[in-house]
Amino acid sequence: MIRVHIDHLLKAQGRSFYWLAKETGVSHTTLWRLKKDKAQGITFNTLESICKTLKCKPGDVLTMGRNHKPVKSRR
Q1: Range of the domain at 22
Q2: CATH number, domain containing residue 29
Q3: Confidence (pLDDT) at 74
Q4: pTM beyond 0.85
Q5: What is the DSSP letter of 40?
Q6: Alpha-carbon span 31 to 38, nearest angstrom
Q7: Which of 20, 38, 62, 71 can pair with 33 through a Cys bridge, CB separation 3.0 to 4.6 Å?
Q8: Structure confidence at residue 61 (pLDDT)
């Protein structure tokens, strides 16, 4: 499972989810779902907005969980 670390990045910078939502234009609901691992996915635009605002790289926001199982291709 891919993990999202927005809350850790925000805490390190002393910022809130509301601040991030305002700065990125990403809804608070979307950010909450990402934080709680409830999101089905994330668009590149959303990831880019988060990274630019938090001055970080995608690898700082997303990591692969330990119990990751490869998904079979549908081809």
Answers
A1: 2-58
A2: 1.10.260.40
A3: 64
A4: no
A5: S
A6: 10
A7: 38
A8: 96
Is the residue at 35 inside a domain? yes
* Tokens, residue 21: 């939502």
Please give the pLDDT value at position 32: 94
Mean pLDDT per 10-residue segment, the chain (75 residues): 92 96 96 92 96 97 76 60
Task: Indicate the residue type of 57.
Answer: K
Burial call 10-38: b when 16+ CB within 10 Å, e when fewer: beeeeeebeebbeebebeeeebeebbeee
Give the largest Cα separation in the chain, rounded.
45
* Entry field: residues in the chain: 75
> How far, in Å, CA of 57 to CA of 73, rounded?
27
Beta-bridge partner residues of 63: 3
